[in-house]
Specification:
Chains A, B: Keywords: Decarboxylase, Lyase, Pyridoxal phosphate. Chains A, B: This is Pyridoxal-dependent decarboxylase family protein. Chains A, B: Its EC number is 4.1.1.15. Two copies of one chain form a homodimer. The first copy, chain A, is an alpha/beta fold. Chain A has a seven-stranded mixed β-sheet, sandwiched between helices. In chain A, strands 8-9-11-10 form a four-stranded antiparallel β-sheet, covered by helices on one side. In chain A, helix 15 packs antiparallel against helix 16 and helix 16 crosses helix 17. The relative contact order of chain A is 0.11. Chain A has three domains: 106 residues, no CATH class; 193 residues, Type I PLP-dependent aspartate aminotransferase-like (Major domain) (Aspartate Aminotransferase, domain 2, 3-Layer(aba) Sandwich); 133 residues, Alpha-Beta Complex (Aspartate Aminotransferase, domain 1), CATH 3.90.1150.170. Chain A has 17 helices and eleven strands. Chains A and B meet through helix 1, helix 2, helix 3, helix 4 and helix 5 of A and helix 1, helix 2, helix 3, helix 4 and helix 5 of B.
């Protein structure tokens, strides 16, 4: 019954298929990479690698304040066209790490730079890297207790902590549910997209009944007597909600984009009218109304309290997409902005956004601890009925123990540590908006409610002409401004020192088309006002190059 | 415009809400955790933490050969019932790490133990932890080029490498598609579950047309003139396929579990008859037929070539769930077992299974580089039309750059390095089956085709009686054996030295109910025959305790 390991040694290789003839995959090497390092020399080497990673990478990131090395996409893609897997090892770990530090990192994006204010990805606290390393070293799989044990227990506890932050139920409620086998306060997901998808999945099944999961959408809609099932969310809704409509079989055209008011928030009057009209014919089912707590593009927060009133009154599932804004609840000063969230039926949040966790982590919460029963799946070898396996009520299957990162981080920072970052972001964004308003070349398009704002460059001359132009003239002028702001964003991005993003926003409710705007997300505590002024200065220089001279057609 | 950081210092705290009165969240501390370590002392501390993680954890794992510390779930859950987030920091990173090593790790599951052969989660090569640390430190988000740049380019290259491993198209094909903006050879996902879901999503939209994504299942089925849309997979199919049916609005009862033959493989005759019957009335659409390359419970591989013939002939989407078995393609010796996979329309694979990556990583591949157009989603601020953003055709949203781990690992190991592990698993499983057959107390239920097998304890006395029993008697005897094998699996798991899993299998096609079996997955290269003999010895001791005496009723 003995397996001879010698037989595994690879002897039959051609000389021409070896990229690095000195490296051979053999059993001895293999054993070395699986067996824990015993001797001092071996340990030293492993620590040396980790030092390279921690400091080699970080020295690079420090010395490159800008966001990325200048190289065109075409040049870059030309370096990565080989599609054959080498039969033999090509490189040692040491060389792989060194290549990553010297060749790959410089062509990645320095999202940790204080000048990187364009997306919801930024610097994370240093200790997050250590915590992620622990999760990888333990390599638990929280799909089931048998591959995670205490990590599943910790996940349930962390879920209860965040549930309590949202819903503020009493101690007895949490004592009942924190470690309950039968009920679930929420679930970890791999991000806001799957968190929203899970919430809509539960809402769909709640509205149409258990039949939809078993018999499908067509049969369930027929049984319920509806011809259409819709989700209502404002125009500022994240595109993952449209995607959820597509995936779940509702149809993404049935995720209805509601108008917003002049503050980019759900227009409550129009929402009420829409619901009334949809209910009139009795042929349309409303699966959910979604409120946004921190819109991706503008950071705005819908009137959650009013939306809760409306939904509760009508028996409609009320979901809050708090992927961005959820952690604002950790700030005593700004938590009131999210008032009403405690009455939502479900809430989604991202771990890798304002909880400052590394990619990839999200969460979804349900007010009713029985809500997730709608989506339970069992199997014979894991997730048996009656077990506490977290995989039973989960969109994803195998999952790493990310809850340990959030648990540890909450202990290291406390809610007040998080509040410092949240408050800094909001207050710096407000100061940034004031600075933009002061400058003649810019206008704020959507002022920051949380820590996101949009603005655009409007040279004073164009601004004056806009005021006096007829509709046709305004269209031409705005087209010119769109081009200008696209040019600014692209040129600044390519220059590689700073990065803001751009999107297209209708500043006036009901107006056509929308304007290209620059978008800033202030989440890095190292992003100071001085940094933001530098970013504006650079944009002014770029813009002046574009506008000199302003074309005659205008 | 200056924000005074002093104002952020938290002054207003009650003495009774402070768990550790010496720790305060203030701006200075916050800056320290975001700013890169400059001085030598600071760097030494960070390396010290990493050493603690690398060796503290591993010393523990080494000294605990068994799988986990003995503690009841009730005791364990009682330790994790506090659901309030502390306002102030509770612990320093140092203490958090130390707690994880000394209090949490011993109550986690030592999945790296060679004695842990129960699930598809096992030891990973040491360098994987380093690679995951790099991914966390870079914290790129491959949803869009603007937050990942070269990492998106590397992801496309790795996808092409694995696509080529599966489909073996020519060099010209890969030169066209490896870095193409318009086409996609596949996608990274967070696991096999979402990979299968993505494949079924594409297949659904391909069958029903673009209308299903926009108008929903009910409208699309009506337009297509079908009353039911089904997926066909054998009884050995992974439960994620049923879940996909539920999520996608087909209904999980329309994921039809096909009979298997005596080798646990798809019964081709029955599949043909089923398809013929389903097509007869013209009211049922077949979304996909799924072949399994490495069934979760038995490791068996469906007759992929025959299934490809059948599906191609009938114009049915043929998906192969190779979440487990896919990497067998890296072994020259055993790749032929998967013959036919190169004709699949789509293939799913897990990164965190036999690619030995850390949790959480999966992939899905499509033969047709245009197939994923069916599921494209755009938005204004990212994933704009015409961009190369990987988030356009993806179930998930934000994602970490896991492709870098697979890319590096393929370079460090070469396909032959992987082949050593694959071959060891399959050959050790075969030797284990031979050992089981030799022992009078056991019988092999499903012999290993890859590196998974199931078996059960059948004491000789019960075996004899089974041979002569009438149906009623056999039922009683098998019930007794079920209890015996559940007892063995539980007792061994609780004892904490070794771990096999259990499931329920019908060994004879068409027979009722199924038997409880013990299930072994041999993927850890350190799992030797000696280890497996020890596991059997322990099971014999446990089983003898249960069977002494065998009850009179039998």
């Amino acid at each position: 019954m003995t397996v001879t390991h010698n037989s595994k040694k690879v002897g039959q290789m051609n000389s021409n298929d070896r990229k690095n003839p000195s490296l051979i995959a053999d059993w001895k090497t293999l054993e070395r990479i699986f067996i824990r390092p015993e001797d001092e020399a071996c340990r030293k080497t492993l620590v040396k690698y980790m030092e390279q990673i921690l400091f080699g990478l970080h020295d690079f990131l420090n010395s490159n304040v800008g966001v990325t090395q200048e190289i065109s996409l075409l040049e870059l893609t030309n370096l990565y066209r080989d599609t054959l897997i080498s039969p033999d090892p090509e490189k040692k770990l040491e060389n792989v790490i060194s290549d990553i530090i010297h060749k790959i990192a410089p062509r990645a994006v320095n999202v940790a730079s204080p000048y990187f204010v364009g997306h919801m990805t930024a610097a994370i606290p240093f200790f997050m890297v250590h915590l992620k390393t622990i999760v990888a070293a333990l390599n638990q799989n929280v799909i089931k207790l048998e591959t995670s044990k205490v990590l599943s227990v910790i996940e349930k506890q962390v879920l209860a902590k965040i549930h309590r932050l949202i819903y503020r139920r009493d101690e007895a409620f949490y004592q009942t549910h924190v470690q309950s086998v039968d009920t679930s306060l929420g679930a970890f997901t791999t991000g806001g997209t799957t968190a929203n998808l899970m919430a809509m999945w539960v809402a769909r099944n709640h509205f149409l009944g258990a039949g939809v999961e078993q018999q499908g959408m067509a049969a369930a809609m027929q049984a319920k007597g509806v011809e259409r099932a819709v989700i209502l969310v404002s125009k500022r809704g994240h595109y993952s909600l449209k995607k959820a409509g597509g995936i779940l079989g509702l149809g993404n055209s049935n995720v209805l984009a509601m108008d917003v008011d002049q503050h980019q928030r759900m227009d409550m009057k129009k929402l009420e009218v829409t619901i009334r009209n949809l209910k009139k014919d009795g042929k349309t089912g409303i699966i959910a109304v979604v409120g946004i707590a921190g819109a991706t593009e503008t950071g705005t927060v819908d009137p959650l309290g009013e939306m809760a009133d409306l939904c509760l009154g009508q028996g409609i599932h009320f979901h809050v997409d708090a992927a961005w804004g959820g952690p604002v609840l950790l700030s005593e000063r700004y938590a009131p902005l999210l008032k009403g969230i405690e009455r939502a039926d479900s809430v989604s949040m991202d771990g890798h956004k304002q909880f400052y966790m590394p990619m990839t982590s999200g969460m979804v919460y349900f007010r009713d601890p029985g809500a997730m029963d709608q989506i339970a799946y069992y199997s014979n070898y894991v997730n048996r009925e009656g077990s506490v396996d977290l995989g039973i009520k989960s969109l994803e299957g195998s999952r790493e123990a990310n809850a340990l990162i959030l648990d540890s981080s909450l202990k290291i920072m406390g809610s007040r540590g998080y509040a410092l970052m949240i408050d800094h972001g909001i207050e710096t964004a407000k100061a940034f908006a004031a600075e933009i308003e002061q400058r003649v070349m810019f206008e704020v398009v959507t002022p920051p409610e949380l820590n996101i704002l949009t603005y655009r460059m409007v040279p004073p001359d164009v601004c004056r002409r806009l005021e006096h132009a007829d509709p046709k003239g305004r269209e031409i002028l705005n087209g010119y401004l769109d081009e200008l702001n696209i040019y600014i964003q692209r040129t600044q991005r390519e220059a590689g020192k700073s990065f803001v993003s751009r999107t297209r926003i209708c500043p006036v409710p009901g107006s056509e088309g929308g304007r290209v705007v620059l978008r800033s997300v202030i989440m890095n505590p190292m992003t100071t006002n001085a940094v933001l002024r530098e970013i504006l200065d650079e944009q002014e220089r770029i813009g002046q190059g574009f506008c000199d001279p302003i074309p005659q057609i205008l």
